[in-house]
Amino acid sequence: MATKRNDPRMEDDDRGDTGIVRTVVVAAKVLDALAGMRGPVRLADLARSLKMTLPRISRHVATLRSLELIEKAEPSETYRLGMKLFVLGQIALEQNALAPVCEPHLTRLRDHIHRTVILSTRSGDAGAVLMCVPSHESPTIIVRPGLRLELPASPSARIFHTFRDEGDEARPKSTDLYLDERVNFILANYFDYEPDPRTTGIGSIAAPIFDHQDRLAGVVAIVMPATVLAGGPDAVMVKAITECAARISSAMGSTAWDRRISLPAKRSTRAGRVG
């Protein structure tokens, strides 16, 4: 006779002594996985990506559909995030203290450099876009809120990875030498960049924003054609984004950038380039 622990029917039960409700964790993983898909996905593909059995993923999807967090899509038997999540996302944006503080500074940065500017917040060990302030130039690059910024390619994600909270697990040891190199660069320079992190012809340069406890609160980034960053960001661009990050951090009560700005800037030997 199978015990409760070994009974496959109990695999979604709320077990454990940590206070974490496992079914909620799995539901969140399902929503995260759907958010990372380029379009509607079949249950079998969703189960495969999450390494779950088809019956288990079916139960979670059915429950999330009943809550209007997931909906069926065309072609039939495929699924996507529901519109209710969009509504909740808009409410979360309004409630997030970071967004209203940052918006005027992001707009000022956009108007100064004539490039699209985005604000991202932590999502696990990476980031997710919270706000996009599109440039008025043509063609305009628009980054949709909710887009996940993944390691190791995204500069914003690397900044989240670098400045982990003291309460977080220790930063995992990386076997990616390039990621380790970028972490050291971020700690030394307080910004990061990548010419084409998603192989879309679009690059970005990012800088950290700190809160009143000098913990990482978010990341501001400038988005631009990859060709602009092919030789690294120019000094004007770096100055603009780091000053923006410093102003926002100061508005949130942080002194992290005040201490950083008092240090001598690290510049490369290439004229007009930083990093």
**Beta-sheet strand percentage?**
15-25%
- Distinct helical segment count: 9
Unreliable residue runs: 1-10, 167-171, 263-275
Oligomer: single chain
Q: At the first level of CATH, what is the class of the largest domain?
A: Alpha Beta
Mean pLDDT: 82
For the largest beta sheet, what order do the strands appear in spatially? 6-5-4-9-8-7
CATH architecture of the largest domain: 2-Layer Sandwich
Helix content: 25-40%
Please provide the ordered H/E string of secondary-structure elements. HEHHEEHHEEEHHEEEHH
Principal-axis shape equals globular
How many angstroms does the end-to-end distance come to?
64 Å
Query: How many strands, which pairing sense, and closed or not: the largest β-sheet?
Result: 6 strands, antiparallel
CATH evolutionary superfamily of the largest domain? GAF domain
Count of strand segments: 9
- Which structural category do the helix and sheet elements fall into? alpha+beta
Radius of gyration: 21 Å
CATH topology of the largest domain: Beta-Lactamase
What's the structural domain tally? 2
Summarize the structure.
The protein is of the alpha+beta class and 275 residues long.
